[in-house]
Specification:
By secondary structure, the protein is mainly alpha-helical. It has helices at residues 14-23, 26-44, 55-60, 66-69, 85-120, 132-142, 148-161, 171-191, 199-211, 217-225, 230-235, 239-244, 246-255, 261-282, and strands at 53-54, 73-76, 79-82. The chain is built from 14 helices and three strands. The longest helix has 36 residues, at 85-120.
Length: 285
């Protein structure tokens, strides 16, 4: 459940007083700020959006421009940053960080208990030692021959000691991760559930990230889920349509002009009418 704390200092903030004047009602202004904070809290944990709200979602919630005019929120390219976001929502990142530290401490505690149990019962972990006669014969034979088991052990030990650290994710992998974060976040906001992710979806996300400029791909993916074309809505915005219409969606996002079936039909009708008028002028009809 989202947690919103309203402190007394809000009501003495000059920006809030300006908002009340623009809205014309203190209670409505307070409600608008609460809705803004709720929206900001949803996106604050999303690192792909730099803890800011995508403009498409800001407009979808019908947030008034008065919030930007009085300085309670600021525009940064395709995102909106809420003034004092770190103060209001910082507890969410602290909570997540404490959870990760708690999990790390639990793992360390289990490892320590395991070591203590081993020290308390060393006999259970000892291997069966060979007899003196067999040990002497093995020692004598070892002076003339090389044991294959020892060589395998050394090779294994060498592999362990020379193991390299895992490579850093590539730029494409980073873009794919951001695309998925923006898409899944927008999907959850629209449908109230997480989208399904599998091998097919991962491949589609990768192909989409390769067809759209790197810095634009996550924003286009988020824009797609807000698209109200009947075909997208009837299919519930799957990743497959995001991939198949990648260039179209990018143009619509860039120009802020969404092409729907009705608009396409109207343009087609207008073009047909102009063609007929031109034919009449030429005497062809």
């Amino acid at each position: 459940m989202p947690r919103i704390n309203i402190e007394q200092k809000l009501f003495s903030d000059p920006r809030f007083l300006k908002l009340c004047i623009k809205i014309g009602d203190e209670f409505k202004a307070t409600g608008i700020i609460i809705h803004m904070w709720l929206l900001g809290q949803e996106w604050y944990v999303n690192e792909a959006s730099n803890r800011m709200i995508p403009i498409v979602h800001w407009k979808k919630r019908n947030m008034p421009n008065a919030l930007l005019e009085v300085g309670l929120a600021t525009k940064h390219k395709e995102f909106i940053r809420i003034a004092g976001a770190d103060e209001y929502f910082g507890w969410r990142t602290q909570y997540a960080e404490s959870g990760r530290k708690g999990g790390k401490k639990s793992a360390e505690l289990r490892a320590r208990n395991k070591r203590e149990n081993f020290q308390a019962n060393p006999s259970e972990s000892k291997r069966i030692e060979p007899s003196s006669s067999s040990s002497s014969s093995s020692s004598s034979s070892s002076s003339f021959s090389h044991s294959p088991s020892n060589s395998k052990t050394k090779k294994k030990q060498k592999k362990v000691t020379t193991a390299k650290s895992p490579p850093r994710p590539s730029e494409l992998q980073s873009t794919c991760r951001k695309v998925w974060q923006m898409y899944s976040g927008s999907y959850f906001n629209r449908y109230g559930t997480e989208p399904i992710r599998n091998a097919k979806v991962n491949a589609q996300i990768k192909q989409f990230a390769q067809r759209i400029p790197t810095e634009e791909a996550p924003l286009v993916a988020s824009f797609y889920v807000t698209h109200n074309t009947q075909y997208y809505i009837s299919r519930m915005h799957p990743v497959g349509l995001l991939l198949s219409d990648a260039e179209k969606l990018r143009t619509e996002w860039k120009t802020n002009r969404r092409m729907t079936t009705d608009k396409a039909r109207n343009q087609e009708s207008s073009e047909t009418l102009f063609d007929r008028l031109e034919q009449i002028d030429k005497g062809e009809i």
